[in-house]
Design goal:
Blueprint: H1 5-21, H2 36-46, H3 48-51
């Protein structure tokens, strides 16, 4: 099955959102400040679609 470029990007964004949600607790107001590594990881996830357009070639950042 072949997906359109738009669908591939949507799938990538979905998986990125899941990974971001897994780290949302780092950013809660009642928890200690995030480390620089945690901030970088979350920013790298947000920026993932600037480099990749599908799950076919994505290289996920390493979670600290």
């Amino acid at each position: 099955m072949s997906f359109s470029a738009e669908k591939k990007l949507a799938i990538l964004r979905y998986h990125r959102t899941v990974k971001l949600k897994e780290t949302d607790h780092w950013a809660y107001q009642d928890t200690p400040d995030m480390t620089d590594a945690q901030k970088k990881y979350r920013q790298d996830l947000r920026d993932i679609t600037k480099t990749y357009s599908s799950m076919d070639d994505v290289k996920w950042p390493t979670k600290p």
